[in-house]
Predict the 3D structure of the following.
Amino acid sequence: MATVAVVVLLMLVCFLPTWRALLDRWLTLAETDAHGFLISAISLGLLAYYSRSQSAVPASDGRTLALLAMLGLGSAWLLGYLADVMFVQVSVLPILMYAGICYALGFRASKVYAFPIAFLYFALPVWGLIRPTLQQMTVVVNEWILSSLKIPALIDGALVHLPSGTFHIASGCAGLHFFVVAFALSALYAHLYLYSRRNKLTLVGTAMILSIMMNWIRVAIIIYAGHVTEMQHYLVTVDHYQFGWYLFGAMLIPLLLLGRHLEAREERAGIGPAARPDETGSADSAGVAMQLVTVAAALALFPGVALALDVTARNQQGGDIAMPARLGDWHWLAAPVPNWSPIFPGAEVAVLGEYRTADTDIHLYLNRYSLQSQGNELVGSTSYLFDPEETRPGVVRYELVGAGNDSFEVTITTILHQSGRQQVALSWYWVGDSRFSRGFDVKLHELLARLRGRPGSGIVAVKADCKSDCSAELELLTAFVERHGLDLEAAASRTAEGES
């Protein structure tokens, strides 16, 4: 039916910013995202196939529920968009698409589209929630394997210390990509060729278990190869990820045999597709058109609100940050800061320099965001106060500075630069007139500020190089922030019109 194609097209157009961000992830071919195009093609192919074979007359069953679902899910998408939370944005899109189809065709006639749309979830970045669990399972099982093989190893968190070297069972070693692909392939096979719910669950459950076990074996083989070759094996020095796909291919053989066995068992038992009543007929073209108009209005409502708020944010973008030339005895110097490279993609404006006195200096970084997007965020997976390629994280703690109504919480971070120099930093985020040290609080208040039409947030950080244990430098930074921190924040938040 053309109705399904229209709903899919409306989804693509109305939620283009989210689809564009998703497309960028797929194009990177990163782990757990490399199969996004293939999954999407399969999903769209199934939708097209069922649309051609579906001859049901659009019905009105469940239309009110479908409309409420579209409004509720659209609201959730809007909140996720304004807070730049990709997980929320992409999680609601397939269900939102299904709700639109249900409104146009009715729930009974739309059941056939449930699997193709649900299959899209295998292409979405929603699986990271289980990565820590898979990673921890891999560590525990490999500790047992190494002990069984009598290989001397010290397990420290995700680090495996051997006499010949150290392995890091990082998040990428959790096997999430293998798990998602095995899940997707088995679910597709079960949908196409199996009819018993029990057999479907058997095949999918087996695929999930085999993929997890296969990754355990992969990691164990790599560690063993490193142990017996003094860390010189190809799997250690060159590539170990591709090796996992060879094992994955071998794992598919027994899985396919199981699928064929379950298929044959259903054939012998006479289990097949349930007969469906003949639903042929001619649809009321005017009625279908009105339903699609309603779907279009419901889908476009919240992206329209988002667009209006984005325009407001662009209009409120300010100019450059004018740093106070003097703060007490401190003199401002806009100059490169050695051993410090903050990374905040998409910042509207940023300043890096130092305040000096006759005998000491304090390094400073601050920025401002008025409009944010996925990957260009104040708080996000690509934003760092300290470049992770240049530094090793140390102690992080939160403390109050200042007194009375002017007190606020800051983050105190001790880090070790690759140059060997130890540093201490004191930082905080600001959103409007409020200050925060934790990312969740920042995201929440940024969302509220966007809804009020008063966007504006940023970070203020001061840093010093430590001479010994960093205690003297921390005391200096704390005193500086207590006396001048609000002046620095005011400079960062000031707009082009001079309003803070």
User: Anything to note?
Assistant: The chain has three domains: 1-125+288-315, 126-283, 326-493. The chain has 15 helices and twelve strands. Residues 210 and 251 are 7 Å apart (CA to CA).
